[in-house]
User: Fold these one by one.
Assistant:
Number 1:
Amino acid sequence: MDSIIEISYFVAAVLFILGLKRMSSPVTARGGILWAGVGMLVATLITFLWPDMHNYVLMTTAIFIGGVAAWWSGKRVAMTDMPQMIALYNGMGGGAAGAIAAVELLRGELHSTTFLTLAILGALIGSISFSGSLIAFAKLQGWLRKPLRFPGQTWFNLAIFLVAIGVGGWLVANGEFSGQLIALFFIMALAFGVLLALPIGGADMPVIISLFNALTGLAVGFEGFVLNNAAMIIAGTVVGAAGTLLTQLMAKAMNRSISNVLFSHFGATSTTEETVEGSMKPIDAADAGIMMAYAERVIIIPGYGMAVAQAQHKVKELMDLLLKRGVDVKFAIHPVAGRMPGHMNVLLAEADVPYDRLYDLEAINAELARADVALVIGANDVVNPMARSNPDSPIYGMPILNADQAKNVIVIKRGQGKGFSGVENALFFGDNTRMLYGDGKEMAGELISAIKQL
């Protein structure tokens, strides 16, 4: 029986790794998810054969409740709300790792210093990921609209973290399994996760979600060692490694370090008051439609505003209409456009935009200077030339899409507000920029109507 269990866990691990590999490409991502799902099914079912397993009713009930809840929420949640769903599910993984550690600590059967240390580390990291992910969910859902900051916040957070570390160290050093100490440890860890996420602004959400994902994987891996469960060790390691790499990529895309994201209060204040010369020049949909219809090259730059307006299907219709007129249409995707890594890719894929028309920042930037029209829909900070020109700007040095270099720029925007960084966007004041004010979905519809009338 032990051999069957070990072979099954090995098969599950292989499926996890191959599934993750296939997820790296939009073309094979769906198959990758299915492969990884089969791996998880194998690992779950074989656990019922684990020696001395007896909580079958409780396990089956938990799986049923969780499965029904996941199926129901997966069917109901719109693609525009996928970031907060991912944040919530990721938090559940960290919470599960923390719960496993709590059970093992309360049992008092971990006498090995190594396993006790791993249990404490997994509990600490998993609890931070759990509570932090819940705050990220609340922010993305719109329940917490403003970052919460106060003087001395970094030092206060550090004190909470050190208390958690101290209590955890005491548990390891003394083999103390007091319920009160264990409770204090988890309270401090959960509090630190909340305090860590509260000051983070919306512009940094892609990085934070990736970071908590990495922490969840790491916590699961640690608890896998505690339980001597190969599937948990491998799955946690793979998720932790992937989340860490993704976090680094997201931070690089913003030209910032992880510590800067966590502790700099990005966008809270600016060292100088931005001064942008010129004025925003409006355009109506009819004129914008003419400009795009008679262009040779159009590059569409989507942002979170497109997601909020649920305009992706209208944008796809606009693309099809332009292609029929012989216009070369491409999409420029910034790594941190949206509220999670790959957010724009997911939305456009849902609208059946062909994968080969989506280009990342490095691949498309050189072409923007040759574009007749750059259509910016709901994007702000990722196209702000201040990142190149103003050393005093909070976003200075962040790689951006060079929309300002296009011959003509059309920006679909609800109003004249600033982006999540709180920085004025010089692109909107450019001589070659025209502002098409209104809801993204409605304006895309008006552009379609204008082009059809030509």
Note: The mean pLDDT is 88.
Number 2:
Amino acid sequence: MPDQSDMTPEPSSQTTETQPAPKADAPAPGSSDTNSSTTESPSKPDDGSLLNPKVDEAKPDGEQTDGAEPEGEPPANAAMFGAPAEDAEYELSGLPEGMTIDVAALAAVTPLARELNLSNEGLSKLAGVYTESVLPSVQQQMTDDLASRAAQVSKDWATDARASVVGGTNAAGEPVEADQIYAGRSLAEVQQVSAKALDRLGGEGFREFLDQHGLGNHPQMLRFAFAVGNAIGEDTSFERGGGTPAAPLTREEKYYGKPA
């Protein structure tokens, strides 16, 4: 029979090693330490988008990279610019027929034309537009203003002349007394005597001239005409009418009348 002592199991030759206890702050096995490492984010492109990033490639020779317009055909108005040399004068061309260049006006506008870098063609075009479109309007406005002022002046003269005959207030609002030369006559009487002188010495043409320019209303013109009309007096048979001077009466005709 086999000996039972031989049946006793022998202790295992393998020794169980004791694993050290994990530290309290140590990460669990298999987990990543988010505190000990920094997560790198993808860099943001300088321009464009993720699907269309900016590509910084070398530009071909001659290509503009500073935002300037590429070289090409000159602009349509290129001939309008480029001032003449400092020692050269502007030469205008293409002006309306009959238009002459005002030398003084050209000299006055030259500094501005050079500042704007206008060429001869550019200044000529500007002068043409001014001559055809602006100048006529300016001239018409000046003519209207002068006519309006002349009409007002003539009206003021008439007020002054009326006041000098019958007294009253002149155009300036000042009180005046009647001129003694009129000897208290009415305005209508003074006009009649003055008209006789004008017809005798000047005729209808002269009267129309005075009326056209407003000079017939001037106080001194009225005074002069009245004085001349008085000088003609009653010693002639002159009567207003056709404007033809009558022959002066002889001495006999003055005393005895003209023969029938």
Note: The chain has six helices and two strands.
Number 3:
Amino acid sequence: MRPLIEDALDLFLYAPVGLLTSSLEDLSPDDLPELAEKGRGRIGRLLSNARVVGHLTISMGRRTLESELRRWRPPPDAHPNGNSGAAAELPVESTDGPTRARRTGADAGLPIPDYEALSASQVVRRLDGLGPEELEAVHAHESSTRRRRTILHRTQQLLGREEPPGPGPAAT
């Protein structure tokens, strides 16, 4: 015995499609199973074709998008702020390992190696050993790029321009 869903699909989906693909004069009441089979075959082919076209469309779209992204990617010597001569910090795709960030040209002039790759807390720990000119360079760079308040405040404290946090004045 066939499941009820199969009978419903035959009656309401496959038979009407089969009917549309058959000539009206060749029909008899006993043709329902044959019509359903024709409809099933026709819809199966249509779905198969739609699936192939869908995969092809997605594949071509992906290739087009990747091509456009490569076309619009800034050249290696372009800086995000418009300064030429400094490399933009973009992910570098590599087939032999994980993605890594490139070192920026501005990063090379800072007294802290791999500055752009460090978190604010890692930078702050390295500030104590810097001289005034180096602190000024870090402050200027941070002010014009990421503006991390922790680093900006600590450089100002070390330069003597800001009071370090601590207990307030003693009450008398």
Note: DSSP finds six helices and two strands in the chain.
Number 4:
Amino acid sequence: MSKEVLATFLKNSQDFIELAQKMSAADYGKSANPGEWPAGYVIHHMADADSQFAVRYLNILTVDQPGLVPFDEELYEHGAKYAQRNPAVSLAKLIAATDYLRDLFGSISDEDWNRTGNHPEAGIVTLTDILHTAAGHIGEHANQVKGILNA
């Protein structure tokens, strides 16, 4: 099961990266639908969310049942200065992080996938559960970027 989740995560990550790489600087300001973040913000969001998920993965792998910190993605737009940042830099971070996670997850044991953390909203979750959430998250945003490119 965890290998299937990892394969889905890596596929969705690669899909997002490939779609984002097709964007021009002009595309960064486009949204798929009114009221949604523009493409550049979505790229920043994925780089920032990936960082949050990575902390969770590492804590689960290294600490016995750590507390997992939730994050409010809506606060990141202003607090993390999405309007002032370069989407190409965030995309480069996401590419490197995906390679890092492929390497990290390729080296862990079957037992490691069942290690747990305690999320204040979701309760006790396994590493597999967290990666499953991340896989769905990046898959949803890949579809959003696809919509922007097709708009």
Note: The beta strands are 116-119, 123-126.
